[in-house]
Amino acid sequence: MTAKHEPVLPAGPTESAPQDGTAPLAVKPGSPASPDGPATTAHRAGGARVGGRQPRAASYSLAARDRRFGYGLVAPAVIVLLAITAFPLVYNIWNSFHHADYLFPTTFGTFAGVDNYKELFTAGLFVPSLYRTLGFTAVSVFVELVVGLALALALNRRFRGRALVRAAILIPWAVPTVVSGLLWKSMFDPQNGFVNFILLKLHLPLAHTTWLAQTWTAWGAILIADAWRNTPFMALLLLAGLQVIPNDVYEAAKIDGANALQTFWRLTLPMLKPALMVALIFRTLSSFLIFDVIYAMTNGGPGNSTQVLAYFNWFAMNGESNYGLGAAISVALMVMSLIIAYIYVTAFKTEQVV
Amino acid sequence: MAAATSTIARKPVARRRLRPGKAAGWSGFYVLVTIFVVVSLFPFYWIVITALKSQPEIAAGTSSLLPAHVTWSNFHAILTQHVFTRALINSVIVALSTTILTVIIASLAGYALARTQIRGKQLIMGFLLVAGFFPVIAMVGPMFITYRSIGLLDNLAGLVIVYFIYTMPLATWFLTSFFSQIPRELEEAAIVDGATRLQALRRVIVPVAVPGIFTVGILGFIFCWNDFLLALSFITSPSNYMAPLAIVNLGQSQYQTFYNLIDAAVVIITLPIALIVLFAQRRIISGLTAGSFR
């Protein structure tokens, strides 16, 4: 009896999960769905869960039919999902323990033990790439967060031409990442670019720099290219979060005599947390996995000085056709990406409990 | 009582009117906003004027921030270059096919996850999120080896498959939250009127869900249109290039970099997405925030 009843139970909490968990920003307070929401839920779950005395038999078969229908609809997606999460994951791990170098077809597919992982460290490219990647991620995310937040706060004020400004700053996001790299390469070009030209006309230093030929100036150029495309995007995500904060909260803070700084730290930032989390996860992961811009601007150079993990990974595979080594790097990247996402989710979750 | 009412009533008025102290704040604010807009848009201005420059002008280097002799020859040259036009067509075909596939599969799954009582929902949702944040580069190795052995390398259908695998999870995630906000009465009424579940889905729910489906479609299209890494890894012959790949190779295959040609190509491939972004701004942002879309 209880056993029969069990399977129906999880439907309630699971079903409401996406509503609470995923869409705090999208739910409009005045939407017609909210007043009848609870009533509908009770009505729907009534047969199976709440007052399930006499209509149990009927509702159970209905639920079974409903479930069959659901499985049919969700099946294609689940198959693809298995293909994406399980297949590359398992295959990467498998390959990372095997020789998979197209230049050595005789050993291709033979067991390699931990040779590929050993090569990561003996070749001496992995650890420096890791440091560079982490350094770039930290700096770029920090810069984009600070500037993006300032921009979001500015756009949250009412002023003439706001819609126009909002549209204007999102346009860089329409440029494909690799193209933005290519563009900034041309703009930093000492001959044909405008950066050195403007510096020269304004009598500023660095006017004769060959930006992409030196390590630190190359990183500066990469950072600018990355921030140019992604800061507005960060800003608009944060702006969407800001616009959900009800105005009367600010009114109340004002009446209580809070100054602008207090309002920002105690009110705006805590209420912005969900949006901050989404924006930070996006940006951190995409900075951590940066490839296109590096490929277009420096190809990892000068020397190896701008080689990041994703580039190293790609080069091991497409450049040296060593897919075993590539798999080992991919495994490392997958693990680290998961750790990054996990850190953000837990960090924001524990503090968010109110 | 009267005093309290009057202070409350005065507040909004005081906020709206500019006090002398605040005027300085506002002008500082406008300066800031102007800087942001200029920094965002100046590179576009630069691209456009570079695209309008002739080859001798490019060779002479930058001597002014204004265009001197406007020529359309770069656009003409690029649009008659077979590799580029072919790449544009490839990009459109691949991006559209992926988008349609994603929208169909993700709508069905999203509906099932939001509205039916299937088991393992939480597990699927969790997997969707993990899959959505799967590093693109980590797909390259396994897919390359697989494609090589089944002959899908250098094949546009192969690209559609990888792109679809990539856009589907977060599209489903977003549509699940979107579907669960649609009032349940709508389909219940349709079923009471004698429609089957599938009919109710097609005739009643899908029309209501058009904005959400539209958002997912746009984001999927943009992902495909912008991708470089996957195309670079799987495509080798110029006739199968996607637009970004064509542009990169356009600049690299020469002894000299033809920035004017590259920039003309950039203007052409950026324009459609820029227009989409401008018109669908709100949808895109809602998709990104609510659905944590990549």
Question: What topology emerges from the helices and strands here?
Answer:
The complex is a heterodimer of chains A (354) and B (294).
Chain A: H1 2-5, H2 11-21, H3 33-50, H4 56-96, H5 115-122, H6 126-155, H7 162-170, H8 177-187, H9 195-201, H10 215-244, H11 247-255, H12 260-271, H13 273-288, H14 292-297, H15 309-319, H16 323-352
Chain B: H1 2-16, H2 20-51, H3 55-60, H4 73-79, H5 82-115, H6 121-132, H7 137-150, H8 156-179, H9 185-192, H10 197-208, H11 210-226, H12 229-234, H13 243-252, H14 259-279, H15 281-290
Helix pairs in contact in B: 2-14, 4-14, 5-8, 5-11, 5-13, 6-8, 8-11, 9-10, 11-15, 13-14
Task: Quickly list its features.
heterodimer, A: 354 residues, mainly alpha, MetI-like fold, 2 domains, 16 helices, 71% helix, disordered N terminus, B: 294 residues, 15 helices, 78% helix, globular
Report on the architecture of this protein.
The complex is a heterodimer of chains A (354) and B (294). Chain A has 16 helices and no strands. With 354 residues, chain A is mostly helical. Chain A has 2 domains: 2-12 and 33-96, no CATH class; 115-352, MetI-like fold (Orthogonal Bundle), CATH 1.10.3720.10. In chain A, helix 4 (56-96) crosses helix 16 (323-352), helix 6 (126-155) crosses helix 10 (215-244) and helix 8 packs across helix 10. The two termini of chain A are 38 Å apart. Chain B has 15 helices and no strands. The interface between A and B is large, with 113 and 106 residues.
Number of extended strands of chain A: 0
CATH class (first level) name of the largest domain in chain B: Mainly Alpha
Strand content of chain A: under 5%
Largest pleated sheet of chain A:
none
> Could you state the CATH homologous superfamily of the largest domain in chain B?
MetI-like
Strand content of chain B: under 5%
Low-pLDDT regions of chain B: 1-15
Instruction: Please compute the radius of gyration of chain A using only Cα atoms.
Output: 26 Å
Helix content of chain B: over 70%
Distance between the termini of chain A: 38 Å
Please name the CATH architecture of the largest domain in chain B. Orthogonal Bundle
Q: Give the mean pLDDT of chain B.
A: 81
Number of structurally distinct domains of chain A: 2
